[in-house]
Amino acid sequence: MSPAASSEREFHSLTEIVEQTMEEAGDGHISVDHLMSSFGHASFVPLLVLPALVLITPLSGVPGLSTVCGLIIMMIAAQQLVGHSQIWLPRWIRNRQVNSDKLHPAMRRLLPLTRLIDRAARERLTFLFKPPFLWLLPLSCVIFGAMMPLMEFIPFSSSLIGVAVTLIAFSILTRDGIFALFALVPLGVVIWGVTSVLSSL
Q1: Number of domains into which the chain is organized
Q2: In the chain, what is the straight-line distance between the N-terminal and C-terminal CA atoms, in Å?
Q3: Which domain holds residue 106?
Q4: Rounded to two decimals, what is the model's pTM?
Q5: For residue 89, how many C-alpha atoms fall within 13 Å in the half-sphere facing its CB?
Q6: Comparing C-alpha atoms, which of 120, 7, 107, 127 is closest to residue 56?
Q7: pLDDT tens digit string along 77-103?
């Protein structure tokens, strides 16, 4: 699929995003820059979902990858929050690559979960997508992304943040506020974990 064609496409489900990522990955390696071009530099929600989904997979165990995903989430959500029309990421992040042989099986493992979530979605609690609540959703993702470097030291915390960001982004995609509320569950677990670690120091 050409970048031009992809940038014009609207996404309505997590499964569509995962399937296109697998299609674009092909063989060899795929870079962040290639994914940005294929999804479109104005595709805030799909490009917010992708690093969050990676955090849920075994790829989150790759040293430093969770931090990079967190920075991507933070920068994309911050630009959405202030109303940018195009996503900008620094060159060193755009040049980061993932081995397609590792990405494909990780994405395939997510498909049963994304299909289940997609089937459950419908428009609910739409007041969450109007000011002032509308700004709280990307702001939460900014905070989650900024926390990610610290989460490298707390087992499974990066995956929980990945779940929270995925649910928030999916709620924006489908206008289903229930999923935004569900994101409070992994957030609560992360806060409890961080508090427990700090209190033991």
Answers
A1: 1
A2: 51
A3: 3-200
A4: 0.84
A5: 27
A6: 107
A7: 999 988 888 899 999 999 998 888 888
